[in-house]
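Researcher: Here's a chain I'd like modeled. Treat it as a single chain, no partners, no ligands.
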Amino acid sequence: MVDLSWVGPVGGGAICFGAGILAWMKAPRSLPAGVFLAAMTFIVLTTISGSLYFAPGQDHPDIGAMIAKIFIMSSLLAMALLWLLTLIFPIERKVSFRPLNLLGFVMVATVVLMITLGATAGVASSQIDDRTAQLMFGATATLAVLITANLLYSVTKADAKGKKSAKYFLIGFWVGYAAPIIWMLEVGGVEPFAHLDAEISDMLITIGFAVSGLLYGVAIATGQMSIKAPASEKLGSSSKAKYKLLHRHVYLVEEPKPDFSLEIFSDVLKGRCIDCENDESFECESIDCSACGLPCPCRVCTKYKSRSQGLVVTRQFAQDIRNKCFLQTTPVIWLTTVQGPENMDPAKLALLTDYITNFMESSQNGVVLVDGIEYLVTSNDFQRVQKAIDRWTEAAMTSKCRLIMSVDPKAFDLKELATMERDRETVRPDAKESWRVFPERI
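Model: Modeled as a single isolated chain. Structure tokens:
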């Protein structure tokens, strides 16, 4: 009778491979999707070589040793690729192979190291020696820890979609990893798993890969998980802004973190003006617009003379804001005592005020987001900060700009908060009364 014990493990691997193909179809030019597909491919090789592990027997020791080597190398490469995926997912990090940057070097060096470990593994016939089994266990366990730690760190900097994708990826990873590690320990003769029934370990690996692959496939198909890095704005027809921000108005957004403020800012910056009827305009940041050779109809606009031009002043790290909102040319000023070309010392409040007001006066159709008012107060007294806010407000009103300020109401007493709310539109994202929520959705 033909032994069909390989059908289950191979089927589980095939489901994982299908999830990889689906991720690639969703983002065919995405490096993360390519790495994910490669990892799923090596999982298939792992399941095939694992199911054929004892098939050659003692009659064909060379074939058995080759299958064992394929199993070891494919297992290590699958884990390594999943770890490398977390370096570029769910947040974007620049990878360059020509010229080679640090992240590109790490990726190449990791793959070469795994291939070297697999090629030099000690096997006799189809038996993995104890040293190789321990090495495999140590390497895969280390990579599993790195995968988990890197994902947990990345989600703190990812947007909502990235956080959800990372959650599904991490669940699927541990579902798929837990069962094969037991199988690996059983094959390597590691106690107390050395005496585990082979059929039980085979069934565990089948269930683990199948459930992991199904979870990945369903999450990718339904859009719950996206294996791709954030992309810059695509050249295409731009939609109108979702929020209605009036010129010469100042909006005080009361929120613990500037998430809603960034959402409004990004929407107004890259969406068409609320009264624009030109469907041929496309998403862009109009800073350095004169250097762009694309035929943009917004250049001949007689009302605004430009798409919205933005400025961000924030307590958050500037590059994190760029990654989160996909900003390329928009200036992002980081409030910090650390020196840098895009950094501003919060104690130099007059210099910051000059920068903001000069931008408002020189920009066309400007929109400015200021986050970190609480930090400015710690470096200055509240009265000085309030005078600066009044100056920004006046500049916005005289220059036809829109100013968004994000503050945490818990950081101020009632008198201070009332002072800031005066002459400004108050935005409360969590307000139950719709009439209290500004700006209005269109």
